[in-house]
Amino acid sequence: MAKVKPFKGVRPPKALVEEVVSRPYDVLNSQEAREEAEGNEKSLYHIIKPEIDFEPGTDEHDPRVYEKAVENFHKFQEKGWLVQDDKEQYYIYAQTMDGRTQYGFVVGAWVNDYTEGRIKKHELTRRDKEEDRMKHVRVNNANIEPVFFAFPDNAELEKIISEVTKNEPEYDFVAPDGFGHTLWTIEDDTTIEKITKEFEKIPNLYIADGHHRSAAAALVGAEKARQNPNHKGDEEYNYFMAVAFPASHLKIIDYNRVVKDLNGLTPEEFLDKIGENFVIEKKGKEIYRPNGLHNFALYLDGAWYSLTAKPGTYDDKDPIGVLDVTVSSNLILRDILGITDLRSDKRIDFVGGIRGLGELQKRVDSGEMKMALALYPVTMDQLIAIADSGNIMPPKTTWFEPKLRSGLVIHKLD
């Protein structure tokens, strides 16, 4: 059963929130962070991407960079740009995009739920990325950025969301990217207790986004437990910060592929090979969007094509075999184009659906890429089925949007 707890969040005063908060550390590079933080000493990038305070080109893994993160985190607290709440509480965080709003609970998630597999993952993590985030959590002694969880819908928690969100929010603003962010504090003891009890009825939580952050936070928590001779199990480091959303609130968007060459084939030969496993319809110059599971959009030589996988090319009874990312990875990328490792092959790149299919067309028309493949998005039900079966999704399968804003709430480990 999922164990969560309220905590004393560290967060910006209302008047400063828009200056402090930022995009997550992993959605932009050092140069972009430098540009976004320019002229703003209160930007969280000084804590989560502190290489921006050094010469351009400074390695973000330089020990001085981690030290700078700690120095800046202390400075933000000394100057009152980040202030700790007096009381342990939960928070509700709402995000609005394209007129749709999703509401999540900001909670302390139990490290043991992660290590014992009740917080389920659907992606592999890379040790180097875990190590980087572990150092960041360790030196700051805090989870500066939250992890993004989903949980099976719960009627009582929905009721709490609708009650709490009738009140005046603590923060309510639209970020520069046009997405709305709203936060409410939950200080009422009865409601706090109810949230803790309702989460206890939920068998599993699912990592939607932030596999490396989850792994890092859990590993640091376990490390602190080992190092503490008086460890009791109720210390703050036994929990890490997450925003948990009811699964029905979330929508996964498409994650598409662009490839540099056709592996020595002419466009005609390439289409002939595709025709062995897919029904091909030429759609012309108008952008074509996949219309359902097992339907793909191909952009090649100035034209869009609909590709429909023929029966027998997918396995609807297998949580991985049913995925379009599996079908396309095996039958197009591997068998025709010779791309076997999606993580490391330099011939392929991935484009989040937030950029639109026009971005795929642009990258092919520019000559940078030879062809583009658009996929129908994975559903939350598929993600949960895969996590429950203990399977791992192929790389670059899911794209969640909007991303959680960093700096709305921070969780200290002591």
The CA-CA distance between the termini, in Å, is: 25 Å
Number of DSSP strands?
21
Low-confidence stretches: none
Helical percentage: 25-40%
Radius of gyration: 23 Å
Number of discrete helical segments: 13
Query: Oligomeric status of the shown chains?
Result: single chain
Sequence-ordered SSE layout with sheet pairings:
Blueprint: E1 4-5, E2 10-11, H1 17-20, H2 30-37, H3 45-48, H4 63-78, E3 83-84, E4 90-97, E5 100-110, H5 111-115, E6 119-120, H6 127-140, E7 142-143, E8 147-151, H7 155-164, E9 171-174, E10 180-186, H8 189-200, E11 205-209, H9 211-227, E12 239-246, E13 252-253, E14 255-259, H10 267-274, E15 278-284, E16 295-300, E17 303-309, H11 324-334, E18 348-352, H12 357-365, E19 371-374, H13 380-388, E20 399-400, E21 411-412
Parallel strand pairs: 6-11, 8-12
Antiparallel strand pairs: 1-5, 2-3, 4-5, 4-10, 5-12, 7-21, 8-11, 9-10, 13-20, 14-18, 14-19, 15-17, 16-17, 16-19
